[in-house]
Amino acid sequence: MDPTALVLAGTALGAAIGIGATTGIIGARRAGQLRSAHMRPELPEVVTTLLDEIDSFAVILDSSLTTVYANPTARQERNIGDDELGDPSFLARVRRVMSSGVPDTHEPDPNDPTDNVRTHLFQLQRRFVVVLAEDLGEEQRVNAMRRDFIANVSHELKTPIAAIGLLAEAVQQAADDPELVREFSRTLVKESRRLGNLSRDIIQLSEAQSALRPEDRERIDIRQLVRSEVEAHRALASQRGVTLVITDDRDRERNASLMGRPTALAAAVANLLSNAIRHSPDQERVGVGMAFDKKHFVVTVTDQGEGIAPEHLARIFERFYRVDEARSRDAGGTGLGLSITRHTMRAHGGDVDVWSQPGVGSSFSLTFPLHEPSEDRRKRAKKKVKRAFNANPEGERTPRDADRKDNS
Length: 408
Hints:
Distance between the termini: 71 Å
Low-confidence stretches: 32-40, 395-408
CATH class of the largest domain: Alpha Beta
CATH topology of the largest domain: Heat Shock Protein 90
């Protein structure tokens, strides 16, 4: 056969196959569009438009319990999916609504952590059922935390309040015995201080958990804040035979400041200092280090105490959690200090981390995000230029300058 004819025949065959494949693809796409149109023949546009705009999970099922519509939230939702929609008990509820037309609502059980989805089913044009769902898992978790916190506060307040009442009665009954009065009075003072500390820490925790408002923000020199707290704790350290030692970063000319609430950040630092002092043996040191870490300023408080066991490390920032209940109460701790510190640091865009080893000691690090005004940046740049000029007076060529000139 003539080669030219073969080439022409092959070209024609390829074109025919291409046209056929294209026609098939277009036909399949049109068929799919027609099937979609037939699946939703009676869905009112106003309903789908409305469901598209709401934040809740929303789908529409037809009489065969097949999903014929899903709003954007339903398409993105990860906690509610095919498994939940295919649950036999849920499908039974859909069938009841489909047959009776009576809406069905399910409220989650607050005591069952696995039951956290609220659903509402109602009929639409007899052939469809609208399913609205809302994942309440986070809300239930917050409510559970709130209930636990209230229960813990109530429990913690009962003890000193009851003790103060009993001691007051004992003082009255022992009015004729000066020695007993003095003993009861000392205990009364101790319990009243404990009650005062607990009230103060509850207020500080509430403040730490609230969002920072613009009027709350002041420019804070972190170095000065830390040094002030160290000086304020020297008396406590001296009483316990502990030495406080401060080490600072070499780059002392660099500004270490941020915008925040001074009293809250001072309390965060104070909590770490008081904990380190209370848990340090006599004649030991508590180190307070300050250093820059890229765009952060890190303050580290290190003690040489008994350390914290690994099983406790994950929970020490929880409210009212105590590694040693008896020792913490005797030392005047409320169990809220570390929780206050973490909430305060995170509210200011920072955080607190801990390293500890039993028998070696503990190290807590506060990471502060820096706020460096443009004027300070300009001053720092000028100082760098001045140092570079002083190191090379009268324009003497450095080795790099010489290399650049030789290469040119």
